[in-house]
Each structure stands twice: as structure tokens, then as C-alpha cells.
What we know:
Blueprint: H1 10-13, H2 17-22, H3 45-56, H4 74-78, H5 81-89, H6 113-124, E1 152-155, E2 160-162, E3 169-176, E4 183-191, E5 198-206, H7 210-216, E6 223-224, E7 239-241, E8 256-258, E9 263-270, E10 277-279, E11 282-287, E12 298-303, E13 309-310, E14 317-324, E15 329-337, E16 342-350, E17 356-362, E18 373-381, E19 386-393, E20 410-411, E21 422-429, H8 432-449, H9 454-466, H10 470-483, H11 488-500, H12 504-517, H13 522-534, H14 538-551, H15 556-568, H16 572-585, H17 590-602, H18 606-619, H19 624-644
Amino acid sequence: MADFKKITLVSLIAGLAVEVASLVGCRDSDSRRTNGKPASGTLTFTRDVAPVFFRECVACHRPGESAPFSLLTYRDVKRRARTIVAVTRSRFMPPWLPDPGYGQFAGERRLTDAQIETIRRWEAQGAPEGDPADLPPLPQFTEGWRLGQPDLVIKLPRPYILRADPPEVWRNFVIPIPVSTTRYVKTVELRPGSAGVVHHALLGVDPTRSSRRRDERDVEPGFDGMGMGDSQAPDGHLLGWTPGMVPFPGVEGKAWRLEPGTDLVLQLHVIPSGKPEVLNPIVGLYFAKAPPVGPLMSLMRLDADQAIDIPPGEKHFIVTDRFELPVDVEVLAAYPHAHFLAKTMEGLARLPDGTERWLIRISDWDFKWQDIYRYAKPIHLPKGTTISMRYSYDNSADNVRNPSRPPKRVVAGLRSSDEMAHLQLQVLPRSAEDAVLLKEALYRQALRKNPSDVWAYYELGNALRDKGQPLEAIRQYRAALERDPSHAAARNNLGVVLATQGNVDEAMSQYRQALRFEPDFADAHYNLGNALRAKGRLDEAIRHYREVLRLEPDLAEAHNNLGEVLSLQGKLDEAIAQFRIAVRIKPDSAEAHNNLGAGLGLQGKLGEAITHFRQALQIEPDHANARENLRIAVEKAVSAARVQR
Length: 645
């Protein structure tokens, strides 16, 4: 492992703190520059410096964007020339943390040595303006949505008022996503609104409603903290925003599944500006035309939190983690994460043949400029590759970013004064089976490091269920519940697997206990309704299906199943009404079309019934009930026609 490189910024920017803190350099291009030679002779703003700023900086440094001042004009730049030289020479700006040569990333915000030297020499020569005729045209920027008009735009239920004075705030906003049917999201674009105070954003989705309940307990919109509740990255997608980031167009054929009843959780890191600010961010969702093809992307995380216990004054505290890949993967992106004390970060892959490949290296971590780093080309890592991380922390008074004066003991946690040690990688396995094997291996390792991790038992149970090992899955769910009996999701999934094993009575007991801990758990109501129907307890089943529909009115499966139970009770009109809703919500449901056709056939509406049977068969040609029902309906229609003749 190479030695860490130490960079000290204090001497470079002494006396310039106010300017440096507000100088945000970024660009609006994914192209890479080559290291050319700095301009020679007498340099001018219009001929030599403006092209650099127009290309590399003004995406943020212009009116209405995240930087607090503009760099579009000669006057704008000249009055800050000394500061610009200091922060570009130290590479404090543009804000791009990965070291060059340790992984090639798309959209790198890094000035070349030649560009930095040109700026330095221009300032040293007195920062002359030059001939106005040499000034290149001002860059043109796309206003509004940079990826085009979204298919769905969602906003906060009500704006959030940010107080005028420090400290900085991490706020999680919970936004219901108004979809009535399953959709597939190719990508998202965030417009932060008050870009001048929004430092960065992370997005997750929560299908459990737990984030919504946490929001309801807070008098203001959202809830505080760096923890995002039970929200998660959907189907392996990393969703976020930082100033200057070009919106990610998504990966073709790898959209993530969005179900009705899902909430978006938007975490904003905001810095008070000295006056109250209205935060009203907007998120645009872009839908794919078809479901994803092939294996979904996965997220794997190296994690050394359990090793974090940093004494005050410790300048070089090291934590490490490693993981051996059980399958081949393509690495698409890296998201390193720590807080204020972290100094250096290394991510390395050692291949089975002994060769090493850098995934990322950051010599001077700055928590306030964290980002998602997407590789310019996917990195192939074969089965048997060992991925390792090595992070160092400085808890001394010499660390200018240390939030504690004097330094205090620091352990792992979700507060900004705590620490973390995560390296999250977005990977693409070769197959769905490989994705399950990867997930299983990751959670087994998590449990080796922390045998009390309830969520790791739960997720390992899910992986084993998907792998076709129901008895092992049951064992892991029970292990989760031994440590946290109130874990409603584990109880629900345990019930589902028990039901597949024929143990319906215990499954029902698990669903009821899940609902005792989480009364608005729609999945548990739905599963309990199905079990009660199987037991012939139709009135109770109806009650739970109606509760599901109170919580998730657009769940087509609940409408269909409620219709089936109503038809068993002879309530044909009510049943047909539910089948019609199911077909409207989910027109590609062969079962709902067949049930609607059967109900209509019993009412003598043979023409309409035949139409729905044919639609069911068009969707699912092997649907035996629909084929038989179509045969019967056609025979009855023919007989009725003969009688009429």
C-alpha cells in the first residue's frame, strides 16, 4: 500500500478564509482536458483566462447557481484574483477530491497544471484585462430541466424555512411518490431550489412508511440528522446531487422499480446564509419505457465502523476492511463516506493473479465536498478479487476541520460529531443468481463483524429466500427477531416463507405480531388477508384487504383479491367493481382480466366477458382458467345466438 500524501492548506490560504469558503469552482462538461503548456508572454483575461473560467467555473459561479458570487466578468474575477490563485494552486478548488491516477472518473472537476499556471502568471503580471475583441462568447446553459421535461415532478408537501444562523443542518424530507401502478425509473434530476445554501443532497426510497411516521412526529417538514431512516438506494442506484454535478442520464436497461405507496426521502445538507431561506426543492423522475433487462445493479459496502474509537489527540488513526468477491462484477461507481476527522481514503482491488488496481484514493478528504464518483469505463473484477479500504483520521487540534475544540474521543455514529468509515461500490453482477450470491456473502461478512446487526440477519434471510433456501431464511429471520422482537419487516417476511412451507397458522401469527408493532404495515395486512382467505375466514380477510386499500388505494392485487372474496360471498356487483379497478390500475394483469370476465359472464354479459378473457390470454397465453372460460363463454354466446334465430 502506497504511503499517504499529506496536504496542508492553512499556509496557502491564510488571511483569505472568507473568500476561500465561498469560492466554488465547478464545470458543466464531462470532457477531459489534456495537459498542455501554459500560455506564454503577457497574459490577458480576455484571451487566456476567460476561456478557463467559462469552461471550468461558471456552471456554478453565475447568478442563480450554488456559488455565492459570479465569475462571468473581468471585474468579478480580478477582485478575487489572489484568492483564486491560492485555492487553485492548492487544488482546494474546483472541489474534486480523488487523486489523479487512482481511477479515471467521468465528469472530473480538475484543472490541468497548465490552466493553474496560466491563472497564476496572469495574476502575477497585474491581472490585465486585454482586448475586449478577444473575449470568447459567454457559455450557454440549459435553463430548467437539463435532461428535458421529467415524466413526473414531485415537490415537498410544504416548504421548509431554514433559520438564518448556524449551525449547518442535515434535514430529511419525506415526499410521497404519486404513482398508481408499478413504474420503472431510469434516472432522477434534482433542482435544489435555494442552490446558494444547499451544499449537497442524497436521495433514497422507503417502501415501509416508517420515514413518513418519523416525519409526522416532527413539527417541521422532515426530520433532522444524517441518518435517512429506513430509506435505501433503490435496486442498486446511487442518487445524489452536488454543485456542478451534471445530471446522470441513467444506464440503459437498468431502471429501478417504483411501487405505489413508496416515499422519496431527500436529505439536504444546508448551510445558513445569515438570513432565513425558503427551501423548496423539486425532484424530476424519468421513466423507462420497459422493465430492466438482465441482472439489477447492486451496492456493496466495505465498512469499518466497528473499529472506530479515536482518542483525542490521535493524528493517524487507521481503520481497514476487506471483502473477497464471490462472483465476477463490473464496478460502475464509488461513494466513499466519512465525517470531519477523516484525512486519507484508499480503495484497492487485488486480483486473483496478484495484480493490484486502484479504485479510488483521496489524500485530503473534506466531508463538505463528498460526491458520487462514476467511472469513465466500468472496471471488471473477477471472482476471487479482494477489495480493501484503508482510511486514516486526525483527531488532533492541528486538524482544521476537527469540530471539537479541544479534541474529544470520537466513536462511530450518525451525528456529524461522530465518525464513519464506508466505501460503497455500485457493481453489476453477470446474472440475477450472482447478485443473490453477492448479497449473501456481504451480509454474512457483516454478521461476522457485528453479530448483533438485526438488519443484516433480515437481509441475509431475504437473500437466502431468493436463493431458494427457505429453511435457512427462516433461521435468519428468527435470529433477527431474537435480537429485536419489534422488527415488523422480519416478522412479515418470516410469515411469507412459513406460508410457502404450509405453516399458515404460524404465518398468520407473525403477520398479526408485525401489525401489533406497526399497525399501518400494508404488506402485513395484505398477507394476513390472503392467509385468512385460505382458511375460509372471509369476513376477516375482507377487513384486512380494505385496510390495505386505505393505506395503498392503488394496489391492484388487493382490489383483485378483495373482488375474489366478495364473489365467494355472492356479492357479484361489488366483486366486479373491484375487478374493474384492478384492471384499470394494472391493465397487464391477466388474473384481473380473467376474474372480471368471469364475473361479467355470470351476469350474462358474454360479449364483454369474451373481450376480457382474450385480453388475459394476450397477456398470458398459457393462462388455463382464461382459456377454459373463453371456451365456455364463446359456446354460450353461440347457443344464445342460435336461440335468438
